[in-house]
Amino acid sequence: MARRKSPLFLAPASYRQRRLRDAARLLPVFGLALVLLPMAWTADGRLSLTSGHVAYFFGAWIVLIVVAALFAPGLQGGEGQDGAED
Amino acid sequence: MTFNLLVAACLMYVIFLFGVAFIVEHRAHHGRLGWLRSPLVYTLSLSIYCTAWTFYGAVGYAARSGLEFLTIYFGPTLVFVGWWLLLRKLVRIGRQYRVTSIADLLSSRYGKSNSIGVIVTVIAVVAATPYIALQLQSVVLSFGVFADIGVVGAPPLGAGGVAILVAVGLAFFTILFGTRNLDVKEQHHGIVTAIAVEAAVKLVALVSVGLFVVWGIADGLPDILARIDASGFAAAPVEPGRWTGLIFLSAAAVITLPRMFQVMVVENDDERHLGSASWAFPLYLMAMSLFIVPIAVVGLDRMPVGSNPDMFVLTLPLAEGQDALAMLAFLGGFSSATSMVIVEALALATMISNHVVIPLWLRLRPTETQHEDLRGVVLTARRLAIVAVLSLGYGYYRYSGGSAALASIGLVAFLGVAQVLPAMIGGLFWRGSTRVGAILGLATGFSVWAFTSFLPSFGPGAFLSQAVFDDGLFGLSWLRPRALFGVEATDPLLHAVVWSLALNVIAFVAGSLLSFPGPVERLQGAAFVHVFGGDTGPQGWARGQVEPEALLTMVQRILGEEAALSLFEGAARAQGKGGFLPDPTPAFLATVEAQLSGTVGAATAHAMISQLLGRATVSVEDLMAVASEAAQIMEYSAKLEAREAELTRTAGALREANEKLQQLSTQKDAFLSQISHELRTPMTSIRAFSEILTEGDLPPELVTKYGQIIHDEAKRLTRLLDDLLDLSVLENGTVQLNLELSSLQQMLDTALIAARQTRPERSFVLHRDSVSEALFLRTDADRLTQVFINLVSNARKYCDADQPELRISVRQRGGKVTIDFVDNGSGIPKQAQALIFEKFARLTDANRAGGAGLGLAICREIMANLGGSIAYLPGQGGAAFRVTLPLRLGKLAA
Fold this sequence. Notes:
Chain A is mainly alpha-helical. Chain A has helices at 12-40, 51-77, and one strand at residues 47-48. Chain A has a domain at 48-75.
């Protein structure tokens, strides 16, 4: 992560990093929602798939990969304490 | 294209893979891995998730069940983009505790219990066998495709022949690169790189076929999308329940499959690679599945009705006359199958040898193996296990006759290994999970899986009779494999997933809640759950009464002499001691255990050390440290402790310095009194005899005799003074070294001849290795020879064996040469080992052969001047000295 000028009270860099970790934890949940979403559109509990579905699933997949790629450098940089952090 | 060309291409490809693995192993051996340890190689090696089942089978899957094949990729994608939640912890624990397999992880977490290791090993082997058979089948099928279409030259071998050839070849490759040596981290760079190459090949192959299909056969993307909507594909329905269940199943499998665990955790070189893989691996999966649907749709369009959609990847290019492309696709499928089998066999073999064979071996032969080198046993066990695993796979393939039953076995195997998931996740995140709970959960899950999924997969009549299918086990209608407890499910797989995992979790949680964990378990639990906390260490050893020498002997059996000695030497140096025997502090014992567990697994390593210590070794303080309240207090006082530790260290350093000064002072006094004594003894006799001589009138023969005595004593005095002078010159470092290139062998020869004068009546059996001695050293040959003469003479003087033997072994390592002199006498008692290099130190007066006890002191000083050292090697079965010196001594150092 980019290091700004040294902060006065709160450490924005580490605060940002903790939020990034929260986001990283939520990412699989978000992903699961994405790949389960089309199941909610079914009328009778069964879903017939069309080319639109193919496009949707690959689009969702790309979104997940891009977001994970954006998160990865920030997460890798921050080693250290986990657990009880706010 | 001829069949022979295909076989030739296959062989060339295999030779190429051997070459890659060989070169990488060679580089790894010399520590030059460089870019080979990059995130790219790590990510590519993860792709053994995509086996032949996904390479060929995904198209067939898509042709039969529409988009459902995507679930197999969505699960791993979710696990990897969510790496911060689970995988990070898994990899950290794996690296920190040198976990060798998934069985080792669970056994280590649940109090280093070997029974858990055995259960997980059994589950893994049972689930993997059909899966390996599936890979063999896919290779046979793909050969068959070429044999059916455009055959030029009939296939020389039947299907069984191809399968057995492939199985033997894979066993050979795995044994060659998987069991070359025992690495403490259990890593195999050669295999991993070969796997990465295969990953690239299969991706390129599938994408090439896909591009050809989309732009070569169809008219680009819009045409493909239109074909999708037009095809019967649209009619393939997806059930939400099955869809969710499959995503969950594949997510579980990617964590628990033994081969995935091997490449993801065990072979991980750097935790940061995981971050890159978190998006790169899903990207790989997406690229692999991008063209599955087009290939399936076009294949259904183009190929004759009734052709096997599993083989579209091969048959489409062949039907279009694209032989080269078909060959590439064939190699892609071949890569998928071989890489999976290699890593799976390796992972299973590690588990079998560490959790089944070695514990049995140690139990059956507890005493005979005290001094045996266990490494040979471990490696042999691994090799046999690899052969056994592949034979099982092959046997299964023959038994099932390559039937269609194999096709569905992929998901069945996934569910089998997924039974490990509750115990694993519980172990990583819940401190309350216990060994009893884990055993109950694993056993329940495994049985339910076997009954509802694995055994029925063979069809009625194979293992379960039709009656069991219809009326339930023992005629109990609620024990029907496809409708457990009367719950009729439309989808047998989903039925098995829900029941096996639900009962597994219930048994695991109930067992954990109701049982009481042992101390080791609680410590391990805290260490695993709080692996990022950094405060609670792993289970510690109380300061034991173990003899370091016995410990060294044991470690040598497993790590080998060189590795063990350097480990002990390093630890001794870290404790501020010289030599090879550090104090058996808890920290040192923990290090030793970690090293051992990297080779034989946590449970065995723990058992071996406890055996040596002779008791369970958890102290009250250790237990206090785990109790959570204590842990919290410790966290607050961590800073205080750190400061206190620093103060203690400083005080320790001061105390040591003071002791050293006092020692020096005593030494000086002792030296003065010794030297007066040594000078005085010959002086006295010289004086006495010269007095007698001055009195005159003695018979001439007495005069000669007394004169001789006086002469001898004077010579002794001179020699003593020479030695002293020599020593003082050496100690002051003002000695002139005569550096030149000289042959080590020649120096040793000279030394052996010169030392023959010492006790010439004894005949020694010499063990030398002239090949390793053929070294040229740049050093002072005369001085070094002097050291050798001294060591050999000492052996001649003091070795008390009836059949004295002397072994001289030379090793060269990284610009350093070590020469060991080991005899078969009773060695030097431990309390004396620290003394022998001091001046005037003589162990016994009985063998006093004219030396003043300065020999080894001079040797030590000479070696210091030659930029090397001399040390006593404990635990070699006799007196053993190691001389270490640089291969080329620079001018400056002199």
